[in-house]
Amino acid sequence: MASNIPQRCCLSGSLHEGHPTGDLEQIKSFRAYIARPKAGARPGTAVILLSDIFGIFRNNQLLADEFALNGYLAILPDLFDGDQITVDDYDAKKIEMPTWISRHTVKDISPKVEATIQYARAQPGIQHVAAAGYCLGAKYVVRSLQGGQIDSGYIAHPSFVTDEEIGAIERPLSISAAEHDAIFTTAKRHSSEETLRGTGQGFQINLFSGVAHGFASRGDLSQHHVRFAKEQAFAQAVAWFDHTLQ
């Protein structure tokens, strides 16, 4: 695999401060959090956020809001039908990851991703659709880079991604990696680089020192170096989409 399966680090992190400003709406049978940019900010561009196991919760909503502030129509679908891992369950140590993962397989999640892409492309004026994936969500960004489903992809500290999925991409991909990551390890990062070279697609891999798996979506922002890495990873995504969605 290009990255290992989720481990305990997927369940760690900090709750970020802020008040989400988007709306919960319905896409077919599932809900989505949608943050809209100011009129005329960046016409024609949508970014789909494919989340970690915490789904639609404050940190991921705030990321969507940040994309909207940068001019994108940002769509965060509920990939888990309301069965995301909750902060309360995490705090109470009620999580059985193997059981939870068995309820949310590729056959369960992929149709929601495809429906969200179709929804984004159907919005008035949308010409380009990109996707940003965090942890588990990264797998579905990479899979969507096949067959022209999306036009550009960004992933942070990926999990569950296979070498075959990386090797099959047909659109550009950018990756933010953590120095300390038992899932996207140094060896996995290097092998992914070699695989990306063979795709013929544009790619970027940025490594952030001193941070661990999850830093880009749920890092402890009270730590100066973690805040810097989180903010720079987000800036990486925006710069990548600006570059590739022209």
Description of the molecule:
The chain is α/β, with parallel strands linked by helices. It has a single domain (8-244), classed as Rossmann fold, CATH 3.40.50.1820. It is 37% helix and 21% strand. It has nine helices and eight strands. Strands 1-2-4-3-5-6-7-8 form an eight-stranded mixed beta sheet, with helices on both faces. The chain is globular and about 40 Å long. The two termini are 32 Å apart. Mean pLDDT is 91; it is low at 7-13. One of its GO terms (molecular function) is hydrolase activity. This is Dienelactone hydrolase. Keywords: Hydrolase.
Write a compact overview of the structure shown.
The protein is an alpha/beta fold and about 250 residues long.
Main beta sheet: 8 strands, mixed
What's the β-strand tally? 8
Estimate what percentage of residues fall within beta strands: 15-25%
Shape: globular
What series of H and E elements makes up the topology?
Answer: EEEHEHHHEHEHEHEHH
- State mean pLDDT (0 to 100 scale): 91
Name the structural class: alpha/beta
CATH superfamily: Alpha/Beta hydrolase fold, catalytic domain
What is the top-level CATH class? Alpha Beta
At CATH's second level, what is the architecture? 3-Layer(aba) Sandwich
* Gyration radius from CA atoms, angstroms: 16 Å
Which regions contain 5 or more consecutive residues with pLDDT less than 50?
7-13
Q: What's the arrangement of strands in the largest beta sheet?
A: 1-2-4-3-5-6-7-8
Number of helices: 9
How many domain units?
Answer: 1
Keywords: Hydrolase
Pfam families: DLH
Protein name: Dienelactone hydrolase
InterPro entries: AB_hydrolase_fold (IPR029058), Dienelactn_hydro (IPR002925)
